[in-house]
Design goal:
Oligomer: single chain
CATH superfamily of the largest domain: Leucine Dehydrogenase, chain A, domain 1
Number of strands: 12
Number of helices: 14
CATH architecture of the largest domain: 3-Layer(aba) Sandwich
Shape: globular
């Protein structure tokens, strides 16, 4: 098997990290924050880049590049996913680690923000090659990992099996099982009930709250979802169950549109058979760009970063956007949508369900006492609604958007923790 390139694709939309810093700078200017504190919080604290060999099944070797970045750890151990993708960059990982810091702080979780990735195409690797890559990468970054230091979890291109290999590798190094070293594991080795649908349930909770506050009903409302991966497919299923009409869903190669509503279960069944969304007989073919411009009540970007930018924001007609993906709006697009009165429920609020259940999993592993799925879902809903109320109160008090309110709360919490801990030595 030929070696995969370790050079990732440059983003046409520019630096995701620069966009994250731009958002931070704009929000930080709204709250009392010293120049020194701003300088400290807008930079990542630690980043590790590794280049490591992996043996392929045919006996040849390839060299892969991986990253682990910790943005801030003043509130607790670093927490964040691992992404296996041919297009992941160090810039992406820096930005995503920063977002994890704000997300954890917003919900009051005792974590800092981290993110990691390996430049690879996991679908082109055999199961044995993927295991070797995972275990070698884990070994390369093991000095950062541990329940009290840095806890990886799933992301694009990774899932429960990869988390199991990571946990086992760390445990072999320690000489005993360390289930709390990762989250998103199979339930049989310390994973939590409710983990798979947690992002979707969190999104459904904040969306239902937004509709209730506006005096609207979810039932019969239309929604278009960009992305049909773990998060997007879960969101489609849960929103359909709650009575929404899912009129369009798209994946990497386009999607399917049916104004009367799609049968999500049938789409999932087609996917199990290897059929592409764009070739589904359940509706008409639609491109990702066309989906973003549909006249729907709710648009859910659940795929890639920077899906909506200054170049295409004018086409957006939805009255509400729920950010299921990380950073799906550029700062320019976000401000334009605010100007037009479009309600945007930001990623650090809307898509925190996965992080919350990762926290629950970590807690359960540490105490070796586990909850059933109904308990997990109940705790998730309570945490989402409590934080939504806090964000809404901040937004109303200061006449700012939900994004600005969420960031104001999160940045204040991290700044206070930094100040009260002081600088060592």
């Amino acid at each position: 098997m030929a070696s995969l390139s370790a050079v990732s694709v440059k983003r046409e939309s520019g630096s995701l990290y620069a966009a994250a810093q731009e958002t931070f700078d704009r929000i930080a200017a709204q709250i009392p924050l010293s120049d020194d504190m701003r300088a400290a919080l807008r930079q990542v604290r630690r980043e590790l880049v590794v280049h490591f060999p992996v043996q392929f099944d045919d006996g040849t070797h390839g060299v892969f590049t991986g990253f682990r970045v910790q943005h801030n750890i003043v509130r607790g151990p670093a927490k964040g996913g691992l992404r296996f993708s041919p297009t992941v960059t160090l810039d992406d990982v820096r930005a995503l680690s920063m977002a994890m810091t704000w997300k954890a702080a917003l919900f009051g979780l005792p974590f800092g923000g981290a993110k990691g990735g390996v430049i690879c195409a996991p679908e082109k690797l055999s199961a044995r090659e993927l295991e070797r890559l995972t275990r070698r990468f884990t070994t390369e970054i093991a000095l950062l990992l541990g329940p009290e230091k840095d806890i990886p979890s799933t992301d694009v291109g990774t899932g429960p099996q990869i988390m199991a290999w990571i946990m086992d590798t760390i445990s072999m190094h320690r000489g005993y099982s360390v289930p709390a070293a990762v989250t998103g594991k199979p339930v049989e080795i310390g994973g939590s009930e409710g983990r798979m649908l947690s992002p979707a349930l969190g999104i459904a909770t904040v969306l239902a709250d937004a509709f209730a506050k506006a005096g609207r009903k979810l039932e019969g409302s239309t929604v278009a979802i960009q992305g049909f991966g773990k998060v997007g497919s879960g969101v489609a299923s849960v929103l359909e169950q709650r009575g929404m009409r899912v009129v369009a869903i798209s994946g990497r190669d386009g999607g399917v549109h049916n104004p009367a509503g799609l049968n999500v279960s049938a789409l999932l069944a087609e996917r199990e058979k290897g059929l592409q969304l764009s070739g589904s007989s359940l509706g008409d073919r639609i491109s990702n760009e066309e989906l973003l411009g549909l006249d729907v009540d709710v648009l859910v970007p659940a795929a890639v970063e920077m899906a909506i930018t200054g170049a295409n924001v004018a086409a957006v007609r939805a009255t509400m956007i729920v950010e299921a993906a990380n950073s799906p709006l550029s700062p320019e697009a976000d401000l334009e949508l605010q100007r037009r009165g479009v309600v945007v429920i930001p990623d650090i609020l809307a898509n925190a369900g996965g992080l919350l259940v990762s926290y629950f999993e970590w807690v359960q592993d540490l105490q070796a006492f586990f909850w059933d799925g109904s308990q997990v879902n109940s705790k998730l809903e309570q945490a989402m609604l409590r934080t939504v109320a806090e964000v809404r109160a901040e937004a109303a008090q200061h006449s700012v958007s939900l994004r600005d309110a969420a960031y104001r709360i999160a940045i204040r919490k991290v700044a206070y923790a930094t100040e009260v801990r002081g600088i060592y030595p």
